[in-house]
Write a structure and sequence with these properties.
Number of helices: 15
Order of helices and strands: HEHEEHEHHEHHEHEEHHEHEHEHEEEHHE
Number of strands: 15
CATH class of the largest domain: Alpha Beta
CATH superfamily of the largest domain: Acetylglutamate kinase-like
Strand content: 15-25%
Mean pLDDT: 87
Strand order of the largest sheet: 5-6-4-1-7-9-10-8
Largest sheet: 8 strands, mixed
Helix content: 25-40%
Structural class: alpha/beta
């Protein structure tokens, strides 16, 4: 963590491609839509386009709008109710944006995605092509992305669109992710009675102190809290995107952030992952788990090596060739993710064995590596 602004804020001012994530808590208050907010955000986004900066919006709010139209006091108590509210509200959400942007000579394009869809690399690439093409013609169209809540289930939710916004940042190679919420930024202590707590100005690295500060609650309509916003900032940092967390109800907040002004909390970038490895680390869902011995952990984390069968102690879960699997150490700490070159039953048979024994044990060989280093991504940066 650092309080120095000079090294971080210019990154926001120089950003040309921006993802703006708008939470339900910004667009609604006590279940009531904030029409002024829709208008203010659309005006600012239009001004950013006029300044030759590209913007993709990731917007929550469909469930809140649908619940209001259905006469509910919350977003629904069951997954089915939330899906129904989303089906009703998604049309209204896009219409709210369409009406505001058409006044500024722009249309909108709607993109609905699910985590399970983007976990497939071919669909991930297709989504990228679509978004980049929309940006190419963005002088007249504003792309608006949302999770497809009508078909999503609790297990595959991104988490109030926070993590989805980081995935979109990776999809389009964004320089800046702006997360609009209903607080000023990340506080150093929970807001409460008495003196107003201080904000973290610049976060260079997520520490246990930062994680404790991120503990918070969700709103009636939102699914994420400050923790999911912190996760999104970490994921965005690994794809080379600076993140700013700020109050979306503050007038001209997007323009202030994009000008490099000291607004909210800024999270700096880390060592950038290639897009495919970022997809593997942050978008895929693992189908199994490999427990590694200390030697294998050391070779992967500090030697840049592939995972060989000799370093595997246990195999958990069922997976096929090409499925994403998690790699953990003996204490259960997540070390890496990778694409398996062998199915789980085969890995169980060759675990702890030398590479020379693979063909003998299985009757075939897919190569020496259970996970090749090109298909392996570390979940923590060893330099940190």
């Amino acid at each position: 963590m650092s309080g120095v602004q000079s090294s971080a804020r210019p990154a926001a001012a120089e950003a040309r491609r921006i993802v703006v994530k708008i939470g339900s808590s910004v667009l609604t208050r006590d279940g009531e839509l904030q029409s002024r907010v829709f208008g203010d955000i659309s005006r600012q986004v239009a001004e950013l386009f006029d300044a030759e900066r590209e913007v993709v919006i990731v917007s929550s709010g469909a469930i809140a709008i649908g619940a209001r139209e259905l006469g509910w006091s919350d977003g629904g108590r069951s997954i089915r109710e939330k899906q129904a509210a989303a089906a009703v509200g998604q049309i209204g959400l896009i219409e709210h944006y369409r009406r505001r942007f058409v006044r500024r000579g722009r249309g909108v394009a709607q993109i609905l995605v699910t985590r399970s869809g983007l976990a497939d690399h071919e669909r991930f690439i297709n989504a990228r092509h679509t978004l980049l093409e929309l940006l190419r013609i963005g002088v007249v169209l504003v792309p608006i992305v949302n999770e497809n809540d009508t078909v999503a289930t609790e297990e595959i939710r991104f988490g109030d669109n926070d993590n989805l916004s980081a995935t979109v940042a990776n999809l389009i190679g964004a320089d800046l992710l702006i997360i609009l919420t209903d607080v000023e930024g990340l506080y150093q202590s929970p807001p409460g009675d008495g003196a107003k707590p201080k904000l973290f100005d610049v976060v260079d690295r997520v520490t246990p102190e930062i994680e404790r500060a991120a503990g918070g609650s969700t709103s009636a309509f939102g699914r994420g809290g400050m923790t999911t916003k912190l996760e999104a900032a970490q994921a965005a940092a690994r794809c080379g995107s600076t993140t700013v967390l700020c109050n979306g109800r503050r007038r001209d907040v997007l323009l202030q952030v994009a000008a490099g002004e000291a607004v909210g909390t800024i999270f700096t970038t880390g060592n950038r992952l290639a897009s495919r490895k970022h997809w593997l680390a942050f978008t895929t869902r693992t189908h199994g788990e490999l427990v590694l011995d200390d030697g294998a952990v050391q070779a992967i984390e500090h030697g840049g090596k592939s995972l060989l069968p000799a370093g595997i102690v246990e195999v958990h879960g069922k997976f096929r060739v090409g499925d994403p699997v998690a790699c953990v150490d003996s204490n259960g700490r997540a070390v890496a993710r990778g694409l398996a070159a062998y199915a789980s039953d085969a890995v169980e048979r060759i675990a702890g064995r030398s590479t020379r024994e693979i063909a003998q044990m299985l009757g075939y060989s897919n190569g020496d590596e259970v996970i090749h280093r090109d298909d392996l991504v570390l979940l923590e940066d060893p330099s940190e």
